[in-house]
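Structure (tokenized):
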């Protein structure tokens, strides 16, 4: 297993290969990313409720093949989207040509973009990604650099709890087969207080933590108070003095 946690690419090659292999069916609502399609409206709603998207300059980190990127662009945002899996970026660009939704997709790490575009984004999303990288704190620091003062960072990940293990791994991957086996590693799940510490270390002010519940019986998702499985978080970059 090849791991690179430098500022040039904070990734594990096996993780990129795993998700890259799903690229051709990423936009299939009944395919291996069916659950992600169900989560997307709730994720979009969480972001839109907390920051204006129309006319905003938004960055989507770990964009996959562009589900959330396109959704935010449809709401009027000017979206730049990053991923390190070439297969995913290719499919995202092709889907954008078919849908007519304009997104600037880049095969680039967020750390390298931070060297080029500091302070240029009104909002940044990083969904279902932090639990798949060697150094989540590096991602958050780069996002903090890229945000303008007053900008907001939106994250989603999985809590490291027995409930998350039972539902996200045993239930979703092995029993219901909603996700490919091996999608998640329990040791990489992140407790909210750990995420909060990384946010504060990066100079960001946590504003909210909310649960995100996937309901397979209706193939939908909703925001809930409980954060013991999936959760979303919002943090703001303080305004300049």
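Design, position by position:
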């Amino acid at each position: 297993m090849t791991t690179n946690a430098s500022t040039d690419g904070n990734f594990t090659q096996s993780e990129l290969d795993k998700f890259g292999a799903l690229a051709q069916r990423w936009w299939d609502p009944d395919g291996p990313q069916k659950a992600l399609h169900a989560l997307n409206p709730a994720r979009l709603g969480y972001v839109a409720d907390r920051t204006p998207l129309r006319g905003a300059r938004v960055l989507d980190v770990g964009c996959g093949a562009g589900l959330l990127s396109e959704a935010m662009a449809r709401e009027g945002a000017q979206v730049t989207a990053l991923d390190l899996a070439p297969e995913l970026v290719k499919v995202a660009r092709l889907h954008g040509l078919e849908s007519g939704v304009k997104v600037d997709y880049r095969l680039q790490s967020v750390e390298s973009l931070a060297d080029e575009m500091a302070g240029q984004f009104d909002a940044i999303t990083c969904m279902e990604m932090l639990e798949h990288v060697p150094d989540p704190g590096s991602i958050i620091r780069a996002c903090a650099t890229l945000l303008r003062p007053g900008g907001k960072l939106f994250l989603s990940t999985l809590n490291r709890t027995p409930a998350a293990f039972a539902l996200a791994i045993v239930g979703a991957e092995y029993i219901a087969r909603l996700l490919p086996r091996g999608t998640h590693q329990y040791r990489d799940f992140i407790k909210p207080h750990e995420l909060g510490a990384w946010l504060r270390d990066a100079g960001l002010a946590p504003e909210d933590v909310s649960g995100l519940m996937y309901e397979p019986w209706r193939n939908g998702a909703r925001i809930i108070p409980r954060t013991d499985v999936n959760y979303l978080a919002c943090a703001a970059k303080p305004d300049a003095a």
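Reviewer-requested clarification: The helical segments are 13-20, 34-48, 67-74, 86-99, 110-116, 136-146, 162-175, 192-201. The mean pLDDT is 91.
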